[in-house]
Amino acid sequence: MSAATSVDHVDVLIVGAGLSGVGAACHLRRECPDRRVAVLEARDAIGGTWDLFRYPGVRSDSDMFTLGYSFRPWTKSRTMADGTSIREYVRDTAREYGVDELVRFRHRVLGAEWSSEDARWTVRARHERPEGSEEVTITCSFLFVCSGYYRYDRGYTPELPGIEAFGGTVVHPQHWPEDLDYAGKRVVVIGSGATAVTLVPSMAETAAHVTMLQRSPSYVLALPAIDPLARILRDRVPGRLLYPLVRWKNVLGAQAAYQLSRRAPTLMKALLRRGALRLLPAGFDVDTHFRPRYQPWDQRMCFVPDGDLFAALREGRASVVTDRIAGFTAGGVRLESGTELPADIVVTATGLNLLPIGGMSLTVDGDPVELGNTLAYKGMMLSGVPNFALTIGYTNASWTLKSDLVARYVCRLLKHMAARGLRVATPTPPPGTAATVPLVDLRSGYVLRSVEGLPKQGAAAPWRLYQNYPRDVLLMRYGPVDDDMAFRSSVLSGRTG
Fold it and tell me: Which UniProt keywords apply (predicted)?
């Protein structure tokens, strides 16, 4: 147990020790070294998603030059890194900046109550110990939630009719058994998202055959496993220049692809189809299996390094079936078309359950905060909620691009307040500001299932998230910190600054 455990009050309390939480703590160490910081982590290890997911082939679905931290360059060659490498990168970063000493493990936050009278949060957490659990209380001046937006302890599995008849093994990727042996086995992976397109080529290396069973297709784009520009410049340009150069090249390339998808979806669909046709075997029914009903980027794009999914299909080690499940038999999956897919193992890569701010409750002066009734300020704070920030990354780019901006903005805000003797900052929308769309505006199933419980966005900045990193750099790193923000210098006076 770290020395930080004995501290009952801290200046900044971070919830979550994953990619975002470690990055936030590092930024505070770098930019606000005088602040007392603690990190509460529900699990027993640093790494978040990258410690939790252990399924075959788990890797990033964004390039590492943008998924890596801005202050600590990713130096390995692979653009889309494996989960183990990312987990070690996060842990090494935590050790380098002393963040590992700030983490209190097995502390699951239950709720937080803001008191205007005391200008502080009282945070309740459940501490799981070998001898039993206990509820602990910590107070903080600023609460920073970096727990992501999905439920860690339970993945989403839809109703699968007749699954009890199946005689094989059923696995959800979020809870992968360490001892699962699939060598020489017939595997059916249910799903078509990022997890499915990662699992299929990886399992196909040793399985007898892997079938990706999808109700409807996703857009899949092949990317080089090693960044071409980085490969060319690695031995010619100093690292301090190479990393930002490749990072910005990838940022602008991703933003251009996203804007093309939004402004000319027909053209983008044609380009994606052409790319798939080039990598698929001759005569493959691309329009059935790789032509979604939705527009590009209505749901998150699936990226495959060096087209490994397409290679598995070309070589016959894997196949794609687009159909609906009618039921299960002892030896496989029965489809509505009448076909039966033989299987020894069924993997339900069927998605996530959303759980904003880790499922914790919030109250402000005794009034419960309903997230679905709040407006998101700069995509990171909530209307009417003082001294509080949350991290939700981009849906069309690397998560860390946004988490870095949020952490740096929190540091700017804290320094702004300290320089002016301010204690409280509350985002306050101008009269007439109306909610328009959810903060996460994808049309993926996991979002639509929980959309009512998500914060909303307004029509314009700072109450609108544009999914545009260059624009957000100008807004959050160089824009004002006091726009639409109500400050108070005293717990009692109400004087603004």
Answer: FAD, Flavoprotein, Monooxygenase, NADP, Oxidoreductase
pLDDT at 77 (0 to 100): 78
Q: Class of the 163-348 domain?
A: alpha beta
Token pair 């209307």: residue: 383
Cβ-Cβ contacts under 8 Å for 372 (sequence gap 6 or more): 452, 453, 454, 455, 456
Q: Look at the alpha carbons of 281, 283, 289, 291 in this order and tell me if their dihedral is positive or negative.
A: positive
Average pLDDT, the chain: 90
Tokens describing residue 489? 């210098």
Residues making up the chain, counted from first to last: 497
Over residues 358-411, the pLDDT tens digits come to 889 999 999 999 988 999 999 999 999 999 999 988 888 889 999 999 999 999
The SS3 assignment for 270 reads helix
* CA distance linking residue 417 with residue 251, whole number of Å: 32
In tens, the pLDDT along 177-223 reads 999 999 999 999 999 999 999 999 999 999 999 999 999 999 999 99
**Would you call 418 exposed, middle or buried from its count of C-beta atoms within 10 A (0-12, 13-18, 19+)?**
middle
C-alpha to C-alpha distance for 245 and 228, rounded to whole angstroms: 13
User: Token pair for residue 329?
Assistant: 């038999």
Neighbours of 203 (CB within 10 A): 24
Q: Do the domains 163-348 and 3-152+354-488 match in fold?
A: yes
Q: On the CB side of 225, how many CA atoms lie within 13 Å of its CA?
A: 9
Burial class (CB within 10 angstroms; exposed 0-12, middle 13-18, buried 19+) of 278: exposed
> Given strand 332-335, what is the order of strands in its sheet?
325-329, 332-335, 340-342
Instruction: Write the DSSP symbol of residue 179.
Output: T
Which fold would CATH assign to domain 3-152+354-488? FAD/NAD(P)-binding domain (3.50.50)
Element spanning 29, H or E: helix 19-31
What residue segments make up the domains of the chain, in order of their start?
3-152+354-488, 163-348
DSSP states of 355-413 = -GGGG-EEEETTEEP-GGG-BEETTTEETT-TTEEE----SSS-HHHHHHHHHHHHHHH
Count the alpha carbons within 13 Å of 10 in the hemisphere toward its beta carbon. Answer: 27
Are 142 and 388 in contact by the 8 Å Cβ rule? The answer is yes
